[in-house]
Amino acid sequence: MDKLLFSIRKAMQQSSDLPFSVYSSVLEQQLHNVPISKPLLIVVLSGDKQLGGDNKINCPADHFIFLSDSPAINMRNIPKAKLYFALLIEFDYQDFEELPIGEQPDKDYFADKIPVPLRQSLQQFVECSSWANQQILSLRKREILALLYHLGYQQVAMMRSKNKVSHRLHELFTKSGFKDLSTTAICEKLAMSESTLRRKLKLEGSSVQSIKDRSRMSLALHLLQTSVEPIGLIAEQCGYHSQSRFTDKFKAHFGLTPRELRKTRMNE
């Protein structure tokens, strides 16, 4: 078994609170409009990953892809030898602070075969994840970004997401459990006036409700991909009082129901 894959599985057995996610399936997954809330490193260890529409980006096993934040992207996770398995690491705005700022790249992603130094760095990150505190984990994330930059992937410096209001709203809704927050309460937490909030969201081409809906779907997808919690409980965690309404919203957004997605992760 691949050493990195083995270490990931061992870490998952030791703790459920990890600084990375694992998406795996035994059947093909086709997902539409997947929100990328933060810059994201995806490392495919088994199977193939395809992204985009007609001009598909292919990321086979032993390859990685680094994505900038994006409101929606289509994805296919394709098992090979009965398994799709990928490591996902999200990065925050401050993780990029030590990287130089260059010109904006033509593409909002880059991909390649996993270099040996990157594999070793990921191995160290995974191995320390079960015991390291937040400060150490943040340093490890910065090391991964710096390593990518010095390995020749200078475009990683421009994958940083701007410190947008939409990102702050995403964090606010997620941490509040999607409770109904008044505009006044939101403005107080963001320390800005209502007119400033509306103006900044207009410049970002977004709205409070669209960000809330996207944040709900992002959490729902994450929980369905990484846990075995009942779908009804996941619906509640995403702020839905009705499981049927949650199912309708999920299918309208991703193109399949929560139950259909969950079946792709199970050996029937």
Count of β-strands: 9
* Main sheet characteristics: 5 strands, antiparallel
CATH architecture of the largest domain: Sandwich
Give the structural class. Answer: alpha+beta
Radius of gyration: 19 Å
CATH class of the largest domain: Mainly Beta
Helix coverage percent: 40-55%
Ends apart, CA distance between termini? 23 Å
Which homologous superfamily in CATH is the superfamily of the largest domain? Answer: Regulatory protein AraC
Give a quick summary of the entry.
With 268 residues, this protein is an alpha+beta fold. It contains 10 helices and 9 strands.
Task: Explain what the structure shows.
- The protein is of the alpha+beta class.
- It has 2 domains: 3-158, Regulatory protein AraC (Jelly Rolls, Sandwich); 165-263, Arc Repressor Mutant, subunit A.
- It has 10 helices and 9 strands.
- The protein has helices at residues 3-14, 116-128, 134-150, 165-175, 183-190, 194-203, 208-226, 231-237, 243-254, 258-263, and strands spanning 21-25, 29-36, 40-46, 48-51, 57-60, 63-67, 70-78, 84-90, 109-113.
- A 5-stranded antiparallel sheet has the order 1-8-3-6-9. Strands 2-7-4-5 form a 4-stranded antiparallel sheet.
- Helix 2 packs antiparallel against helix 3 (134-150).
- The chain is globular, with a radius of gyration of 19 Å.
- It starts with a helix and ends in a 5-residue tail after the last helix.
- The model has no long low-confidence stretch (mean pLDDT 92).
- GO terms for molecular function: DNA-binding transcription factor activity; transcription cis-regulatory region binding.
- Residues 163-264 form the HTH araC/xylS-type domain.
- It comes from Agarivorans albus MKT 106.
